[in-house]
Specification:
0% strand, mainly alpha
Length: 206
């Protein structure tokens, strides 16, 4: 019974921290930066899980016209593309920041990125009804492509704002300059989405 109680406490703690990260991302990251809090591993994992949940569920709606196999494939590929798009430029962000005078440690840089991706995952979940409605109501591939572009653009702008606010809070003297890094994330993400065929909205036969 005690083990079950302990697991329940861990889950509640993780959910509480993640809710705080989504509600007040700047304060959440600043608490770590100042050593006011040391978030346990399951909180970091929870932030990753939130981002994965958002990209997977939204990706599944991108495959609605192609049947069950396409739905499952799009969910997996969307998460893979988003994960690679964020992971590939992350070392460059830290290196370039350090070269330009940043004093942020690796942990704070990674946490800022995780908070941003987690927030983006939540935004993508909120966008599911939009994509679902227009895909079902107007199953015309060019139109659905446009709807998805609008959704991704909106989520991208929101994530840039969150990341900018977090980085500005961590290093006020540098402002929001690191936001430029997200342009690289967007460019790599767009190439991967095209490579994986996520923008191919084809109606399944039968």
């Amino acid at each position: 019974m005690s083990a079950a109680v302990a697991r329940s406490a861990v889950v509640r703690s993780a959910i509480g921290h993640i809710a705080e990260a989504l509600r007040e991302p700047e304060a959440f990251a600043l608490a770590w930066q100042r050593d006011d809090r040391r978030y346990p591993w399951f909180v970091w994992l929870g932030l990753v899980a939130t981002a994965v949940l958002g990209t997977t569920t939204y990706g599944m709606t991108m495959g609605l016209l192609g049947g069950v196999e396409r739905i499952l494939a799009c969910g997996l590929l969307c998460t893979l593309a988003a994960g690679l798009a964020w992971s590939i430029p992350l070392p460059a962000l830290y290196i370039l920041n350090s070269m330009s005078g940043s004093q942020l440690p690796v942990g704070s840089t990674v946490l800022a990125a995780l908070v941003t991706t987690s927030w983006g995952g939540l935004a993508m979940i909120a966008s599911i009804p939009i994509n679902w409605f227009f895909t079902v109501a107007i199953p015309f591939a060019p139109f659905i492509f446009l709807v998805n572009l609008v959704v991704f653009a909106g989520v991208g702008v929101a994530m840039m704002d969150v990341f900018g606010r977090v980085m500005e809070k961590l290093e006020p003297d540098r402002g929001r300059a690191p936001v430029i890094w997200l342009l690289l994330v967007g460019a790599i993400g767009a190439e991967l989405f095209y490579f994986f065929g996520l923008f191919e909205f084809v109606v399944a036969n039968g």
